């Protein structure tokens, strides 16, 4: 996505910024993904430039939503824990995308927070991320018995 977006115009398409004005901190990109699909279908057949512009416009929308949400989360952190310096830890494909990472870095700088991003090699493989999280927990002495039930969302 990022490679394709580099040659695109991020302002060509005005994709929605889901939940941008809501105070809650969760994400939903279903409306954005639908808007991208509908735009692609409306332009079909797509030229290489169309694809690049859609990718750039999509990436810009995601970067804005993620950075605004992160900024709100950091502000909430500072309100609830004023004696602690906020840190934002980002991993996965989001962290590997330089445009999104730059937007998050800017949000952190504005909030006086530290942005922590694992090495890129650990951001693109979920198995590596889970293994790293397990290694960090183990180093802290956290262990679990093997009779637990797997859950799709597991607190680290």
Structure characterization notes:
With 156 residues, the protein is mainly alpha-helical. It is 53% helix and 4% strand. Strands 1-2 form a two-stranded parallel sheet. It is globular.
List its salient traits:
Nucleotidyltransferase, domain 5, 156 residues, two-stranded parallel ribbon
Given this structure, which CATH class is correct? Alpha Beta
- CATH topology term: Nucleotidyltransferase, domain 5
Proportion of beta-strand residues: under 5%
Q: Please, what is the average pLDDT?
A: 89
Through-space gap between termini: 28 Å
Number of domains: 1
Query: What is the CATH architecture term?
Result: 2-Layer Sandwich
Poorly predicted ranges (pLDDT <50, ≥5 residues)?
none
Please compute the radius of gyration using only Cα atoms. Answer: 18 Å
Q: Please state the structural category.
A: mainly alpha
Number of helical elements: 6
In short:
The protein is mostly helical and 156 residues long. The chain is built from 6 helices and 2 strands; from the N terminus they run αααβααβα.
List the helices and strands and how they pair.
Elements: H1 2-5, H2 30-43, H3 48-80, E1 87-89, H4 93-96, H5 98-111, E2 114-116, H6 126-139
Parallel strand pairs: 1-2
Helix pairs in contact: 2-3, 3-5
